[in-house]
C-alpha cells in the first residue's frame, strides 16, 4: 500500500515500543485522540524499576462529559498497567528467580518484548566504535 493511502486510525492506535525503554499507546479519551507515554527506568537493583507515565490528549476536552470520559480512560489504562501487565511481570520474574526453567520463549503476540531483546542483543554484541553505524540501519527486526 502506498504510504499516502495509510489509514490514520491504524497509525494512531496500538502500542509502539521505542528501544530501549519507551512505549506509546494510542487511545480515545473522552472523544479526543490521546496517548499514554511510558518510560521504564532501572531501579536500585535487578528486581526493581521506575515507570513514568504521561497521559496526553490532542485537545483539551470541550465539556465536562468529555473530561470525565478522558479521566475514565486514564483510570482504565492505569488499572491495566498496574493490575494486569505489571502484576503479571512480577509473577513471571518471581517464577524465573526460582530457577526451574533455563529459558523462556516470548509468544508471537509479544512483539515489543521480542524487538527489545533482539535490539538489546545487537547493541551489547556491537563494538562501541560501530554503534553509530548500527543505529543508522533501518530498525526493522531481521
Task: Specify the structural class.
Answer: alpha+beta
Strand order, largest beta sheet: 1-2-3-4
Overall, the morphology is globular
Gyration radius (Cα, Å) is 18 Å
Main sheet attributes: strand count, strand direction, barrel closure: 4 strands, antiparallel
Proportion of residues in β-strands: 15-25%
Give the low-pLDDT segments.
none
Number of beta strands = 4
Features:
single chain, 142 residues, alpha+beta, 4-stranded antiparallel β-sheet, 4 helices, 42% helix
Helix and strand arrangement:
Blueprint: H1 8-12, E1 14-18, E2 22-29, E3 32-42, E4 49-57, H2 64-97, H3 111-124, H4 131-136
Antiparallel strand pairs: 1-2, 2-3, 3-4
Q: Would you give an account of this structure?
A:
The chain has 142 residues and is an alpha+beta fold. Helices cover 42% and strands 23% of the residues. It is built from 4 helices and 4 strands. The chain has helices at residues 8-12, 64-97, 111-124, 131-136, and strands spanning 14-18, 22-29, 32-42, 49-57. The chain has a 4-stranded antiparallel sheet with strand order 1-2-3-4. A hairpin with a 6-residue loop joins strand 3 and strand 4 (49-57). The protein is globular. The two termini are 21 Å apart.
Amino acid at each position: 500500500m502506498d504510504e499516502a493511502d495509510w489509514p490514520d486510525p491504524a497509525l494512531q492506535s496500538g502500542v509502539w515500543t521505542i528501544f530501549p525503554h519507551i512505549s506509546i499507546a494510542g487511545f480515545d479519551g473522552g472523544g479526543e485522540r490521546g496517548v499514554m507515554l511510558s518510560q521504564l527506568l532501572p531501579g536500585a537493583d535487578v528486581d526493581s524499576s521506575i515507570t513514568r507515565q504521561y497521559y496526553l490528549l490532542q485537545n483539551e476536552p470541550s465539556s465536562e462529559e468529555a473530561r470525565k470520559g478522558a479521566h475514565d480512560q486514564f483510570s482504565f489504562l492505569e488499572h491495566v498497567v498496574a493490575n494486569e501487565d505489571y502484576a503479571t511481570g512480577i509473577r513471571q520474574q518471581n517464577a524465573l528467580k526460582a530457577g526451574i526453567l533455563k529459558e523462556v520463549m516470548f509468544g508471537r503476540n509479544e512483539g515489543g518484548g521480542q524487538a527489545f531483546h533482539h535490539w538489546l542483543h545487537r547493541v551489547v554484541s556491537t563494538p562501541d566504535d560501530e554503534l553509530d553505524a548500527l543505529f543508522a540501519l533501518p530498525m526493522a527486526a531481521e
